[in-house]
Amino acid sequence: MPQTRSMKQVSSSAYELRVKDKGGIYRVFYIMLD
């Protein structure tokens, strides 16, 4: 199951998505704009 968390130290609209599988851990960073 992917994990997501806010990254308030970067921006109030920045988030990190982490996905772990047998090949490794992958991280995606994204921002939510209004």
Describe the secondary structure blueprint for this structure:
Elements (H helix, E strand, L loop, with lengths): L2 E4 L7 E8 L2 E8 L3
Antiparallel strand pairs: 1-2, 2-3
Describe this structure in words.
This protein has 34 residues and is mainly β. The chain has one domain. It is 0% helix and 59% strand. It has no helices and three strands. A three-stranded antiparallel β-sheet has the order 1-2-3, with no helix packed on it. Strand 1 (3-6) and strand 2 form a beta hairpin. The chain starts with a strand and ends with a strand. The mean pLDDT is 92.
Keywords for this entry:
mainly beta, 59% strand, three-stranded antiparallel beta sheet, 34 residues, elongated
| Beginning-to-end CA distance, first to last residue | 27 Å
What is the β-strand count?
3
- Give the helix/strand class: mainly beta
What portion of residues belong to β-strands? over 45%
- Output the helix-strand order: EEE
Shape: elongated
Uncertain regions: pLDDT < 50 for 5+ in a row?
none
Largest sheet: 3 strands, antiparallel
Q: Mean pLDDT across all residues, rounded? A: 92
Radius of gyration: 11 Å
SS summary, helix count: 0
Total domain units: 1
Read across the widest sheet, the strand sequence of neighbours is: 1-2-3
Helix content: under 10%
